[in-house]
């Protein structure tokens, strides 16, 4: 039976960076020799704050990375092995966290994740998205041992990243539909507890009293929803509870150089289309996204109809073995064309 990993230390609060030493000292981790990994500019500034607070008590270094390639993972691992670090503190967005999650998984040392955005549901997931050559791969890893979400940092993060996080949570409803469809058609096992966590995360945002991305209570609850989505994936051992046909569409869009949208925005557009195809309440999703001024259709996202059609036609080929509504469509091209045109008009 697969063991389940969850963060043994999880905090969502204000001024975490300002009091980081106290939080770290509460954790059952080895702070003898610490490697801080961050992105450039914005996230590097937070890394410097952590460095200043820890340098008197720990042997600490700061490494800046610029991508999420497998070569970067290898480079960090070489440093960890040669210099014998005991803990990684990852401060940044999805790329930094994914690199550090996989590095920690390989090197078997403790990882503390401090996300600077809520742009996706991968913060506490057992999946690291890395570039290997010309391909982007979703690789299995461990859930971070510790997660610290500083609401002051999240509040100050770009508006688009918050919209992206909302969009990624929206995908849970279409992903669950596709998973249950696969269960009925292929016999794929459905983990009901994972489904429940994914649904709780989705409903906590869709039914939230606020529609304000500057509302700290909403950001607190979005943080929780993102953590719950990640844990639903950990329990299942895959991204199934949060990734279905809408994510396949997003992966297909990633192949086009002219598309440069945040992951969660692509997924939001995909979720509306998937809901339409699944005969779910897609108009309710559109109204929800409109309240946040989040793109809900190809036209509102700046994707022309021909490119959107091409992406949908290629979507079911993006992940072998991922059975979704796209596998049972008849007259699929006509279905996609009609869906794109109808949704674009709303």
Overall description:
By secondary structure, the protein is an alpha/beta fold. It folds into two domains: 148 residues, Rossmann fold; 186 residues, Dehydroquinate synthase-like - alpha domain (Dehydroquinate synthase-like, alpha domain, Up-down Bundle), CATH 1.20.1090.10. A six-stranded parallel β-sheet has the order 1-8-5-4-2-3, with helices on both faces. A two-stranded antiparallel ribbon has the order 6-7. Strand 4, helix 4 and strand 5 form a beta-alpha-beta unit. It is globular and about 65 Å long. The termini are far apart. The mean pLDDT is 96.
Task: Outline the fold blueprint.
Elements: E1 9-13, H1 20-26, E2 33-38, H2 42-54, E3 59-64, H3 70-83, E4 87-92, H4 94-107, E5 110-115, E6 127-132, E7 135-140, E8 146-150, H5 151-156, H6 159-186, H7 192-206, H8 216-236, H9 245-253, H10 263-278, H11 282-291, H12 298-301, H13 305-315, H14 332-344
Parallel strand pairs: 1-8, 2-3, 2-4, 4-5, 5-8
Antiparallel strand pairs: 6-7
Helix pairs in contact: 3-4, 6-7, 6-8, 6-10, 7-8, 9-10, 9-13, 10-11, 10-14, 13-14
**Biggest β-sheet: strands ordered side by side in the sheet:** 1-8-5-4-2-3
From the N-terminal CA to the C-terminal CA, the straight-line distance is 47 Å
CATH superfamily of the largest domain: Dehydroquinate synthase-like - alpha domain
Helix content: 40-55%
Write the H/E string, N to C: EHEHEHEHEEEEHHHHHHHHHH
Arithmetic mean pLDDT: 96
Q: What is the CATH topology descriptor of the largest domain? A: Dehydroquinate synthase-like, alpha domain
> Unreliable runs, pLDDT <50, ≥5 residues?
none
Q: Provide the CATH architecture of the largest domain.
A: Up-down Bundle
Q: Radius of gyration, Cα only, in angstroms?
A: 20 Å
Count of the domains: 2
Q: How much of the residues is beta strand, in percent?
A: 5-15%
Q: What's the shape?
A: globular
Number of strands: 8
């Amino acid at each position: 039976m697969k063991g389940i990993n969850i963060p043994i230390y999880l905090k969502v609060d204000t001024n975490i960076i300002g009091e980081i030493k106290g939080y770290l000292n509460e954790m059952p981790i080895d702070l003898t020799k610490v490697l801080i990994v961050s992105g450039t500019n914005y996230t590097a500034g937070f890394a410097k704050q952590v460095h200043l607070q820890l340098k008197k008590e720990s042997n600490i270094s700061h490494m800046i990375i610029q991508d999420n390639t497998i070569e970067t993972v290898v480079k960090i691992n070489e440093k960890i092995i040669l210099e014998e670090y005991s803990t990684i503190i990852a401060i940044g967005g999805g790329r930094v966290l994914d690199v550090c999650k996989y590095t920690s998984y390989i090197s078997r040392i403790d990882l503390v994740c401090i996300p600077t955005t809520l742009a996706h549901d991968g913060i506490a997931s057992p999946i690291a998205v890395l570039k290997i050559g010309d391909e982007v791969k979703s690789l299995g890893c461990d859930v971070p041992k510790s997660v610290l979400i500083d609401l002051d940092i999240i509040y100050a993060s770009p508006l688009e990243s918050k919209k992206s996080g909302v969009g990624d949570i929206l995908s849970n409803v279409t992903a669950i539909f596709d998973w249950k469809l696969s269960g009925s058609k292929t016999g794929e096992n459905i983990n009901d507890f994972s489904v429940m966590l994914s649904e709780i995360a989705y409903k906590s945002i869709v039914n939230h009293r606020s529609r304000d991305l500057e509302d700290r209570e909403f950001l607190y609850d979005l943080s929780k929803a993102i953590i719950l989505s990640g844990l639903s994936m950990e329990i299942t051992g895959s991204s199934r509870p949060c990734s279905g046909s809408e994510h396949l569409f997003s992966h297909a869009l990633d192949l086009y150089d002219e598309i440069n949208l945040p992951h969660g925005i692509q997924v939001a557009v995909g979720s509306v289309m998937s809901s339409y195809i699944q005969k779910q309440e897609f108009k309710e999703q559109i109204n929800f996204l409109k309240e946040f001024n989040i793109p809900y259709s190809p036209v509102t996202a700046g994707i022309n109809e021909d490119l959107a059609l091409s992406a949908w036609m290629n979507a079911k080929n993006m992940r072998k073995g991922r059975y979704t509504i796209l596998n049972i469509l008849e007259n699929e091209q006509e279905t996609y064309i009609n869906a794109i045109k109808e949704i674009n008009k709303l």
